[in-house]
């Protein structure tokens, strides 16, 4: 018997096209193709939608199988709902009406850390799966596990270390935050991590290793996009794809481009993506760097997801220079699916997806000189480019990934039956 699945994420890709929201929505549709009755719930707030008095829910889409939970009163420190009296009864009513066999959560942000507990209290037999996409429960610094000063990577969270990053927040509040989140997560039946690296961070934090299953994210099946027709390019073309923000290494990329220009190197860098919700300081910095690197660097702005295959096919190499421990960037999967080499940082899940010299090149994070050297190496060695393209690791299809999740869900069902 196929499951009835409620898929819940911290936004909707049509409102905020982040990697987690996109993957969650892709998986929701794959569950439906597999025969499941699935409902998508995306939490949002005033940044994307205004409140509509009288209900916590808003409609989105035209098929009646997607809804929004307006979550304008949210405590980001404790990752908790503030308006419990307003939201919880509506969530309970939704659960009772839909009666999911499985609730598949993709984040606690905006949904609230209480969500699994509400599910368990309302539907005791429901199986709860939480896919871990970043480090929000562990790290108050936007789930980055990067220190607030110096952009130093954080190898292990503790109340003392967290307090040293946020000195205006009392140490005992970090103790309470950790206990609060671990208590609410204790009702989750299974966690899923798309990378071994992220799994280990949560094991180090205190979640039992046997509860965390590693299932790689999948992508919608796409054909290879057509490469640009002859004549061959007269200079190498690089591409960046995704939102522009400090943690994605935008300034590192532009500084690397400045270095190549200073060396007299002829190239083209196409930067696809916008900078929504970024600070004035960051926007001013990248505006200056774009001006200083024109016309070698082309600022191409936001793009439609359905166009990314053609955009990637038009470059010799994609660049993913993030300076935080990315988990499983969709952009790397998109590039590899188009047999495009990738230059990326040698940390986190990125280092699991790209093996240096096999399907791309890896460089230390936050190092413009190393990134510039890798770009030059790719540009000057056609044999290397061909070798890295042949070594591309095509991602699983989203339907394959859905099948793996459904296998896990069936295992949880059998375990529950045996325990009864």
From TrEMBL:
GO terms for molecular function: glycosyltransferase activity. InterPro entries: Glyco_trans_4-like_N, Glycosyltransferase_grp1. Gene3D superfamilies: Glycogen Phosphorylase B (3.40.50.2000). Residues 17-218 form the Glycosyltransferase subfamily 4-like N-terminal domain. CDD domains: GT4_ExpE7-like. It comes from the Bacteria. Keywords: Transferase. The keyword Iron-sulfur does not apply. This is Glycosyl transferase. It comes from Phyllobacterium myrsinacearum. The lineage of its organism: Bacteria, Pseudomonadati, Pseudomonadota, Alphaproteobacteria, Hyphomicrobiales.
């Amino acid at each position: 018997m196929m499951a009835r699945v409620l898929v819940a994420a911290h936004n909707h890709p049509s409102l905020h096209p982040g990697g987690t929201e996109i993957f969650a929505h892709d998986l929701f549709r794959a569950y439906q193709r597999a025969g499941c009755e699935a409902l998508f719930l995306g939490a949002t707030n005033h940044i994307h939608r205004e409140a509509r008095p009288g209900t916590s829910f808003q409609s989105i889409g035209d098929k009646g199988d997607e809804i929004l939970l307006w979550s304008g009163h949210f405590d980001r420190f404790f990752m908790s709902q503030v308006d419990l009296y307003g939201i919880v009864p509506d969530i309970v009513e939704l659960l009772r009406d839909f009666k999911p066999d499985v609730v598949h959560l993709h984040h606690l942000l905006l949904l609230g850390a209480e969500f699994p507990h509400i599910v368990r209290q309302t539907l005791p037999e429901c199986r709860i799966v939480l896919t871990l996409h970043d480090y929000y429960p562990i790290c108050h610094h936007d789930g980055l596990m990067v220190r607030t000063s110096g952009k130093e990577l954080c190898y292990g969270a503790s109340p003392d270390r967290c307090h040293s990053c946020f000195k205006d927040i009392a140490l005992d509040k970090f103790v309470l935050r950790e206990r609060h989140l671990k208590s609410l997560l204790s009702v989750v039946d299974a966690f899923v991590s798309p990378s071994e690296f992220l799994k280990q961070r949560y094991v180090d934090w205190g979640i039992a290793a046997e509860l965390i299953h590693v299932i790689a994210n999948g992508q919608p099946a796409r054909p290879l996009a057509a490469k640009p027709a002859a004549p061959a390019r007269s200079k190498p073309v690089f591409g960046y794809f995704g939102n522009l923000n400090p943690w994605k290494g935008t300034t590192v990329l532009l500084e690397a481009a400045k270095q190549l220009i200073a060396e007299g190197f002829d190239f083209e860098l196409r930067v696809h993506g916008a900078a929504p919700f970024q600070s004035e300081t960051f926007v001013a910095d990248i505006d200056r760097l774009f001006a200083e690197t024109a016309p070698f660097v082309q600022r191409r702005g936001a793009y439609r997801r359905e166009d990314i295959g053609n955009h990637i096919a038009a470059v010799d190499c994609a660049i993913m220079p993030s300076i935080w421990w990315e988990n499983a960037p969709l952009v790397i999967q998109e590039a590899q699916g188009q047999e495009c080499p990738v230059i990326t940082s040698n940390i986190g899940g990125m280092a699991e997806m790209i093996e240096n010299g096999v399907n791309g090149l890896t460089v230390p994070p936050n190092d413009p000189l190393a990134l510039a050297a890798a770009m030059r190496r790719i540009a000057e060695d056609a044999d290397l480019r061909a070798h890295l393209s042949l070594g591309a690791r095509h991602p699983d299809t989203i339907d394959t990934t859905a099948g793996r999740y459904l296998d896990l869900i069936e295992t949880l069902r059998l375990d529950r039956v045996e325990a009864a």
